[in-house]
Amino acid sequence: PLGPRRVLGVVWGKGEGSFDPAKIRQVQRVMDAAPMRAELRQFLVKAAEYTLTPLSAMLRLATRAPGLGDPPATRRIYRLGPTIPNTLTDARHRAAEALRDLRGAPVTLAELAEAAACGASVVKGLVKLGVVLEEEAPRDLAYPMMNPKAAPDLVGDQVAAGDALVATVARGGYSTTLLKGVTGSGKTEVYLEAVAECLRQGRQALVLLPEIALTGDFLARVEGRFSARPAEWHSGVTSTERRRLWRMVGQGDAQLVVGARSALFLPFRDLGLIVVDEEHDTSYKQEDGVLYHARDMAVLRASIAGFPVVLSSATPSLESWANAEAGKYARLDLTARYGEAVLPAMRALDMRDEKLAVGRWISEPLARQVEARMARAEQSLLFLNRRGYAPVTLCRACGHQVGCDDCDARMVEHRFLKRLVCHQCGATKPIPLACPACKVEGKMAAVGPGVERLAEEVAARFPQARVAVLSSDLFGSARALKDQIALIAAGGADIIIGTQIVAKGHNFPLLTLVGVIDADLGLQGADLRAAERTFQLMRQVAGRAGRADKPGLALLQTFQPDHPVIRAILGGDEEAFWRAEAAERRLAGMPPYGRMAGIILSSPDVAQVFDFGAELARRVEP
């Protein structure tokens, strides 16, 4: 079946059955990679069975670091020297700053030039000046040792929760603990004590984060706790660093890894703890290729290898909440915000009473609150969970809505990109000047708001304001997004406009007002998790505002102030919401109390798909 191709093969076990030796291909080269440990192999088999994935596809997740089969070698790496002169050119200054951002991580000439958007000659010029140091080093270096002996800085109910997690790790064996705490309650500091206990035992720990943008602040906190920077694994890490981490993890020379969901498949030598931070986050679900949920895979790997898992969240998933209620998971609660943080007041703005002009979405009460914050040099966040400029492009002559050519979703206008984008399949096309259906020109109109359109309204309404827009599609790199977040945290913006990316653990000390432009948005459609996700998102977004000396306020613009979910968000009785939502799911036989399966039919012939689907439906009717 291979023909003339050269492919990578894996010896998985003893061969079975008869075969013709004459048809066996010769092995061209044995790769210089350590054998896969039995625990990881068992995990991959179980994960493949659980997700209905071919084992070969699952295996690729565990072996996709570059250059794994290359023999050990040396390379030239570049580090920042002791001083940076003030007289550098812009290109040389960018290169020096890029090295500073890497915090001592080894980087090659090509990688540094790419990160700084400069030529190799710029870097070599810095070497001649002594600003950058060039060294010969083993290609893959061990990571700095972590110091887990520092005394924890816990207060109140954090102490009991930290002690409980430390005891769980010390006891060993498989367990899952749900660490639930309100936003700002110190969940990170608490679960880092579990990490410290794991490191004291000489074992390795993995902390999963849902977004690359969260890693900067988190890494600084970890470095402050353990006096060393942990290893990173995510799409923003260079290929050189990924290869280094893959090897060092397998040798036990990377004690703590902070990473995205794919870090679950790293070949740890002695993994003793997994922490899933923001465990409710939808980013943990892999939607293409191998389909899996990182939270579930973390629990699976821990159950196979026999070590603890900690699931941390202010608004846990209903699955985790239900498992804790059933006694399958332990549960620890942090009920008070830590330090200067205080919970904001929350109010609904009934949009049925507001008379908004056409193409405007900010109500007068919300606008007045924004102006008051600007007068006090405080920040406001306007939240709209809709990327792009407008969700619908409509022909005012015939009513045609521009749809995707590759699927049946409506195209979203992204004015920044000057394109229509399908948020379902990713297809793009130019914004049409004439209607694709009736061919009339000049009648295409953007309908509804996205964050880009909201930014236009803010610029017109508050012309003196410094405005920052946080939306994942507006940044070309993880570094650009981190720079924008750092700018906001330093007070470089008066008004922040953002999608759900702003709800994910950022610390903006000057933020005292959160305005949700459309609190009803997530309640629309047939998603069984719509209520759960709306509740989680609104509580997370509102939690960004407020400190002891600057109380926060969250205003929810809604046309349904009496909706049960809106009432639950405002009332703050989370347990009542979870119990009500669980009762509805149980009655309907929906997850987590039942299972759902999707059957996807595809064909170039639409009629054939509908006919086959109808026949399939008839066959499964009771």
Low-confidence stretches: none
Provide the β-strand percentage band: 15-25%
Indicate the percent of residues in helices. 25-40%
Q: What is the CATH architecture annotation of the largest domain?
A: 3-Layer(aba) Sandwich
Radius of gyration: 27 Å
Mean pLDDT: 90
Identify the CATH class of the largest domain: Alpha Beta
Strand order in space, largest sheet: 5-6-4-7-10-3-11
Number of helices: 18
Shape: globular
- CATH homologous superfamily label of the largest domain: P-loop containing nucleotide triphosphate hydrolases
Please outline the major beta sheet. 7 strands, parallel
What is the count of β-strands?
22
**What structural category characterises the helix and strand content?**
alpha/beta
The number of domains is: 4
- The first-to-last residue Cα distance is 43 Å
Oligomer: single chain
- Predict the CATH topology of the largest domain: Rossmann fold
Question: What key phrases describe this protein's structure?
Answer:
single chain; 622 residues; alpha/beta; Rossmann fold
What is shown here, in short?
By secondary structure, the protein is of the alpha/beta class.
